[in-house]
Amino acid sequence: MYEQVRDYIIENKMIEPGDIVLAGVSGGGDSMAMLSILRRFREEVPFDLHAVHVHHGIRGQEADRDQEFVQEICSTWGIPCKAYAYPVPLLAQEWKVGTEEAARIVRRRAFQEERQRLGTGDVCVRTALAHNQDDLAETMLHHLARGTGIRGLSSMRPSAGEIIRPVLCLGKEEIVHYLKENNIPYLIDSTNLTDDYTRNRIRHHILPLIEKEINVKAAEHMAETARVLAQAEDYLSGQGRELLEKYKDDGEKYLFLPSFFGEEPVVMAYAVQQAFENLAGQRKDFTSFHVKMVLELEQKQTGRKVSLPYGLYAEKGYQGVILGKAESPVSSLAEPGFCEGKQDQEWEIPVPGVLDCPLGRFHAEIFSYEGQKIEEKKCTKWLDYDKIGYNLCARTRRTGDFLVVNREGNCKKLNRYMIDEKIPRDQRERIPLVVCSNEVLWMVGGRINERYKITSGTTRVLQLSYQGGNYHE
User: Fold this and answer.
1) pTM for the complete prediction?
2) 90-118 burial, b if ≥16 CB within 10 A, otherwise e?
3) Strand order in the sheet with 81-85
4) Is the pLDDT of residue 469 over 70?
5) Which residues pair with 321 in a beta bridge?
6) pLDDT for residue 336
């Protein structure tokens, strides 16, 4: 099996002579097998091998045991080891993300710090992760269930920038066999034995069922599919970049002329995604929904505008659709009288993303719900995202607006609710609302719709935050 991994490393040009390789080592079987193989490969190709261990502050004495184990093994094997510790549960609360996401963030931070500590001059520093074929299959199923494109289905690659995955060519059973055959010690993380996390449920139930009932080599076939999809992703990305260059207006914006909208839809989508990345410096938080918003402007009337994450905007102009970066996003309080003549206007809230409009700034985020404590804040609310069936908009009140006021599903007209809450008449027209058609999900500064409250069955949370404007105190 060593020869199989060695050939895989060479085929994908993962490690070159003189490189520095930072191996993520948890102490589990996958990472211990990878560390052993890299240690042996170092005898064939000269490179510096270092281990990085992250203590997440989650499992108490068990986590302490893991760190001591990794440091002891590395000392025995003559591999420098650096351990980083983070209070992940506290950070998850502070950042308002799930525990899994917070753990991913701190792991990236640890590798970044280690890269900066060891990287000097022109030396290439690689980060080696111990993902295997089963991990890849689990990730594909997870992304597919939550909604994704080709990029999401091919995101786990053998080599991507400084990230390398030397054992991605192996299945879990092959790794276990290698560990036993070579008497390599390893530990078992107790959290991997529970169904507390979504990935664990896929690992323990869904993937085994597929392998048992459909094809025993399902994970292997999914890995091959991911490889083919990665080639398709690279090709379409290249086509998108090539198309985008034709419509570059200047360094800060793009002008999509009518000819742009005659191109293949998939290539147009990739061009817009690349434009997002060029303007914002990243793709995080941009979704297919944002691409759709931009492309649909071509059919809208001149002057129609949408707000996008990271201060970007798209607007239908006389010549075509303009995509650029806003110079001065709205952040000030809306003045009295701002709603005059604007009762019929509404502004679509990108999810996830940021909307800057005359009512103020609305920031939308989505994250997995794992029983986190709901923060009681006047201008930040959590809603059950999976229950929201239509696009969200921000506006002021209109005739016919209503909200659900109890668990039985009883509705109340917004006007009656405002009267019951003793909101002054002169303020009622100025309170920002988050709505789906005539259903009010959130009266900013006040209550949210009972229908969309977080429950034990919630899987995804929509966090809405508001800044600026006038609202009911």
Assistant:
1) 0.68
2) ebbeeebbbbbbbbebbbeebbeebbeee
3) 81-85, 48-55, 20-24, 125-128, 163-164, 159-160
4) no
5) 256, 316
6) 41
